[in-house]
Specification:
This protein is α/β, with parallel strands linked by helices. It has two domains: about 15-125 and about 150-160 and about 375-380, 3-Layer(aba) Sandwich (Rossmann fold); about 165-190 and about 240-360 and about 390-415, Dihydrodipicolinate Reductase, domain 2 (2-Layer Sandwich), CATH 3.30.360.10. The protein is built from 15 helices and 16 strands. It has helices at about 1-15, 50-55, 70-80, 90, 105-120, 135-145, 165-175, 210-215, 230, 240-245, 245-250, 250-255, 365-375, 385-405, 425; strands at about 40-45, 60-65, 85, 100-105, 125, 155, 180-185, 265-270, 280-290, 295-305, 320-330, 330-335, 340-345, 350, 405-410, 415. The strands form two sheets. The chain has a ten-stranded mixed beta sheet. The protein has a six-stranded parallel beta sheet with strand order 3-2-1-4-5-6, with helices on both faces. Helix 5 packs parallel to helix 6 and helix 6 packs antiparallel against helix 14 (about 385-405). The radius of gyration is 22 Å and the shape is globular.
């Protein structure tokens, strides 16, 4: 009984922590203002995920639209004819009446838009992942922490807002399977490998290729790069493969449920290392230190068709394309986006979906949670402190993979103490004229 009470109190504290209001600067909606007042929003990247995010905030005042594709920009402008239009997001951020920014660009410009917008006092919603390197994730997080009393931020991991994820978090925190010893996470999507694409004719008039490249190293235009994350995010200069894409969603669950922060070590293996493309498959293990609330544990990631073994006589789920499997001292918990299955040790009593006291409130929607935070100061659950640490954790796997070594990780100094070679993969080199902290 004492242990159950302790766990319940821990769960309640973890859910309600930071529930105070932010103090927002004059000229921006702040605590005490009516939630019915509308934000002036700039949407940077209006196609693909950008179109979905634009729909998510369309009831606010859309005052600026930005995209390197003139055709997509024109289509969005027809819906919001009062909005000013831009090709260059840096010029967009100079518009004085903007309260908040939605970033849905390619991954390699996410950190730049995030940092520049926060430096200008703008609330930010950014599609996952927040960054394209460990260092970028740290800069985004630290920039937010300097402004956390003034700005609302949210990473676009929409599954975080679902009821199923919240119930899994409650089960884990309430001790349904005892002390968690490890979590195995997998996604079977397998991207292509290969090399950077060759030049393919002239750049179409409606595409600003130089701005699409942004801070990355220069590459010849090829239509195979643009419009679709599965096209460009497999290349080192533009994305971070499946660990950056699906890992942002799936590793979010154990990161949240287990109150993870920074690992002490990371090792990874995968297809032969390419100078151009992310691995077609990768297996990763992070070691996380003990805390007062839980023992030390391991997190495992598998992608590209690799999967963890299921415990014998417990689950027959080998066909699952993706999933998260928590192993505890008292049982197992298997989950995906839309379901959860708890299996206890001993008599193996099966519960379809038992639920402890529901302490994590139902989400009003991932975008609405951010909008409410912008207007009232109410905290968001995927703010750039939480999500910045998550993305830094995930992208460390790619550093370990590229070095071929198990990294002893010193998060405070942002370096692998046993591998100087890792430095070149922690921080990227940008094209002349591009500054991350601008």
């Amino acid at each position: 009984m004492k242990q159950a009470i302790k766990r319940r109190d821990f769960l309640r504290r973890s859910v309600t922590a930071g529930a105070g209001f932010m103090v927002l600067p004059s000229g921006i909606l702040r605590a005490g203002n009516s939630p019915n007042e509308k934000l002036n929003v700039a949407v940077i990247g209006v196609g693909g995920r950008g179109a979905a995010n634009l729909n998510g905030v369309k009831r606010e005042n859309i005052v600026a639209l930005c995209d390197i594709d003139a055709n997509r920009l024109a289509a969005a402008a027809k819906r919001f004819p009062k909005a000013k239009v831009y090709a260059d997001w840096r010029k967009c951020l100079e518009q004085k009446d903007i309260d908040a920014v939605v970033c849905s660009t390619t991954d390699h410009t996410h950190a730049f838009v995030n940092v520049w917008a926060m430096n200008r006092g703008k609330h930010v919603y950014c599609e996952k992942p927040l960054a394209n390197s460990v260092y970028e994730a740290r800069v985004v997080r630290e920039t937010y922490l300097k402004n956390r009393d003034k700005l609302a931020t949210q990473m676009g991991t929409q599954i975080h807002a679902t009821d199923n994820f919240r119930r899994v978090v409650e089960l884990i925190k309430a001790g349904a399977i005892g002390d968690v010893q490890e979590c195995r996470v997998w996604c079977s999507r397998r991207p292509k490998g290969g090399s950077y694409l060759p030049a393919a004719g002239g750049v179409p008039k409606h595409i600003n290729w130089d701005l699409w490249l942004g801070p990355s190293q220069s590459h010849a235009f090829n239509p195979g790069y643009v419009h679709g994350c599965l096209k460009w995010n497999r290349f080192w200069d533009f994305g971070s493969g499946q660990i950056g894409d699906m890992g942002s969603h799936m590793l979010d669950l154990p990161y949240w449920a287990l109150d993870l922060r920074f690992p002490t070590s990371c090792k990874a293996e995968g297809t032969p290392v390419s100078t151009d493309t992310c691995p077609e498959w990768m297996n990763v293990t992070w070691d996380h230190p003990a805390t007062p609330e839980r023992p030390a544990l391991k997190i495992h990631w598998y992608d590209g068709g690799k999967k963890p073994g299921m415990p014998a006589k417990v689950f027959n789920r080998d066909e699952m394309f993706k999933g998260m499997l928590f192993k505890g001292t008292k049982g197992w918990l298997l989950a995906d986006y839309g379901f959860r299955i708890l299996q206890l040790r001993g008599d193996m009593t099966h519960y379809d979906s038992p639920t402890p006291e529901q302490l994590i409130p139902k989400s009003p929607g991932h975008h609405m949670e951010w909008i409410t935070g912008c207007k009232t100061g109410k905290p968001t659950l995927c703010n750039f402190d939480y999500s910045g640490a998550l993305i830094e954790h995930n992208l460390l796997a790619l550093v370990a993979y590229r070095t071929g070594q198990k990294l002893d990780w010193d998060a405070k100094s942002l370096r692998a103490t046993n591998c100087a070679e890792a430095d070149q993969f922690i921080k990227k080199t940008y094209r002349d004229g591009w500054v991350l902290n601008g």
